[in-house]
Hints:
- This protein is mainly beta.
- The protein has one helix at residues 181-193, and strands at residues 21-22, 35-38, 44-45, 57-60, 73-74, 87-89, 96-97, 109-112, 118-119, 132-135, 143-144, 153-158, 175-180.
- The chain is built from 1 helix and 13 strands.
- The strands form 3 sheets. The chain has a 6-stranded parallel β-sheet, with no helix packed on it. It has a 5-stranded parallel β-sheet with strand order 6-8-10-12-13.
- The chain is globular, with a radius of gyration of 18 Å.
Amino acid sequence: YAFSKCVNLNYVSNFFWDLKTIGDSAFRDTYSLKKLTISFSVENIGQYAFYASGLTSVTFQDEEGYKASSLKTIGKEAFSGTKLTGELVLPRKLETIGPGAFSFSNMRSVTIKSGVKNIGIFAFGNCANLAEIDFEHETSHPTIADNAFTFVTAVVRYNPSAGWGDMVGQNFGGTLTWKSKISQLANVEIYKTNPHSTGNILY
């Protein structure tokens, strides 16, 4: 609860490089906080850490080399009820997205990197503006809770090589349209060869 309910807090400088954990409810109800960059050193974000804050943008520092993100876990409802908009890109080493982690937020798209192994129940539930979900997994897919995308209507892009199997076509509580990245690339190549092709070009 370090800065919980500091309603006038509107800026946080980049966290110290040796910071490992953002604790439970650390910035809960910080209504004036709008933008945030989370340092590559952070390994865990606790439950309710930014719950109902005013965040419209969060960037995870995730560069090549020593500034690669160390983040492994985003806890329960950590960013729930925020005002996140636009594109959300999660870091490469992230493994667990906790229950309700980004629920009731306003982002339009999310990129889920191949390190993610578990997506909790209601993780993106009630994200009414979420229209695009991009899984970058190539060799194995994550475990997704049944209602992870409740009340979400979105296009899901995936690599068949990750062995999705029967998961393709499931809605996980929402209305999801699954589109293979391989099919997309194939259609684009057909179009490049023959622009007059009647094949479906998927983007």
